[in-house]
Amino acid sequence: MPTLRELLLDFDPVQGLRLPPQWLQGRTAYGGITTATALAAAHALTADGLPPLRSAQVSFIGPASGQLRYQVQPLRMGKSVSHVAVDVSGEDGLAARVSLVFAQARASAVVHDFSQPPPVRGPESYPAMTSQGLAAAIKRPPFVELDVGAVVPAFLANFELRPAAGALPVTGADNPETVAWIRHLDAADVDPVVALVALADALPPAAFTAYQRPAPVSSINWSFDLLGAPPAGQWFLLRSSSQYAADGYSSQQMQVWDVDGRLLMRGRQCVALFQ
Question: Which residues belong to any copy of the Acyl-CoA thioesterase-like C-terminal domain (predicted)?
Fold first, then answer.
């Protein structure tokens, strides 16, 4: 199974990339790896270099399947702020449109951080949950005949997952929220920001915890702000919570902290619910 490091070791956005089955969810690429490879393509194909990533808006338009192709378009390269668009196409056409904002740091008289991480212990305090363990938690009566491959995506095997709070998928949760420690199995030598983006969408959609029975969910978009420089090769605490769900869609908030409680990323996502 190719880890993130192995996947990106020889990544050439000009030649494109065919993701192995272990990085898919169903018939499409996992959204985090689609976005992370788009970011890597932007860095590789922007001649003058880019300042740190600050924000991204991603539209998941169609299946990211087959040989993925990357079209990078610098929209504006300013002195402080640069905008770059990346279209990711698969065998069925346009799969994702990624808008990236890069910006230099500058001195500011206004500095504050009112965020608070969830009141959980460190990752060593919680047992690891494998894809098989998550499947077993879902595959309970009356779902013992469930094809869990349709519910537990293959890409989760690329991460070590330790649930810390909230609910698991398909448990009829009243409070649709999941909190878990997650880290890559191997992201050595990968740009820490690219590695964080590849990991930050790994939790199942929060509304999935409110399901009474298994049924599909699908991310429509993903927007996030990067608030701090992520450390390399560490655990990250992810929280995903659905604030509103109706008419077949959920609006959820997503946050990522490091082991020291620093908020690194804040995001939002619209998720289609098929139940």
Answer: 148-271
